[in-house]
Amino acid sequence: MSQPRKHHYVPVFYQKQFTNAKGLLWAYDRRLGTYKELPPSNLCFKKDLYALKPENAPRDRRIESKIMRYIDGVGSSAIRGLLSGQPTRETFETVAYFMGVQFNRLPSFGAMVSELYTKAGTAVMRMMASDVGRMQSIIERYTENTGESIDVSAKSIVEAVQGNEIEFVATEWPFLENLFTQAENIMKVIMALDWQILKAPWGTGFIISGSPVVIVPPKGTNTVGFGVSGAVKYFPLTYSWCVRLGDPGGSRKYRRIGKDAVRIINYNIAANSERFVMGPEKAQLASVVAHSESEQEQTTPRWVVETKEHKDGGSMQVTLQPRRYFYGRGFQAP
């Protein structure tokens, strides 16, 4: 069977919860500065994003065709269950896991993980090739452990590494492995938080973006994360409904909010976007993009990988970069 090459980092079923009567979405492209009305299948995808790329073999796309398809299927059912008004604990757990996957399945997360592993691998490689004696010891230990000999001299390897003739490149494995591992961790954090399922008033609703899980830190704080005290997390479920996650507590409530609160949430969704901002109506979308000052593509990368030097060596630090944020009365997120 042919396997799909268009791997949607925002699932098609999820986008369909925000389409207009024609089954289309108005999408603002922050990179091109254009508005287009498009079907969900044409938005938020990257070819072979989740494909495995073995040497001398065809690309394996089963993570997209089987695993992501399964996650999207159970996620869709769980969202319907959450909106039924009688969700079970399993319903909340599935929505929480789906949010964790959605937060990490983005191309930007994949690029960050690849950069992290490439930098770490390069640092290890340079440490191993710091001198000929150390490299010779590594070669001998490898031969002893595997029974395989290396037909390249320690001196030539050291010269190649120190001369930048060898490049360490991370494969797709670290991205895919971290995607699912971190989703489990995020799910556990989310399950311990207070949940509010917000209902928009008639005549308005929630938009989405290519990065639909939004974290709004407390006003005056640039530390962004699911576990940051006072941070509010949003995840629109449909045009009419949105999950709001607060601090630890584990309460579960449904409540109606006003148009002003919906507007502020939408501003945060637009400002949090990477490239695409989407909604059913062009007029609403254009207003949100303009008032949130999201016309231009965000120049600051979402993730930053920094090398920290210490007396005894070094370490890698990954930081989730802050965006622009909007707050309601009393400087609180709605």
Brief overview:
The protein has helices at residues 12-15, 62-83, 89-104, 107-128, 132-146, 154-162, 173-191, 259-272, 282-291; strands spanning 6-8, 25-29, 34-38, 45-47, 193-199, 208-209, 214-216, 232-236, 241-248, 252-256, 276-279, 303-310, 313-320.
Please tell me about this protein's structure:
A hairpin with a 2-residue loop joins strand 12 and strand 13. Helix 2 (62-83) crosses helix 3, helix 3 (89-104) runs antiparallel to helix 7 (173-191) and helix 5 packs across helix 6. Helices cover 39% and strands 20% of the residues. The protein is elongated, with a radius of gyration of 23 Å. With 334 residues, it is an alpha+beta fold. The strands form 4 sheets. A 5-stranded mixed sheet has the order 7-8-9-5-10. The chain has a 4-stranded antiparallel sheet with strand order 3-2-11-6, covered by helices on one side. It has a two-stranded antiparallel sheet with strand order 1-4.
| Percent of residues in beta strands | 15-25%
Backbone CA Rg = 23 Å
Query: How many distinct domains?
Result: 1
Number of strands: 13
Compute the average pLDDT. 92
Give the CA-based shape: elongated
Major sheet characteristics: 5 strands, mixed
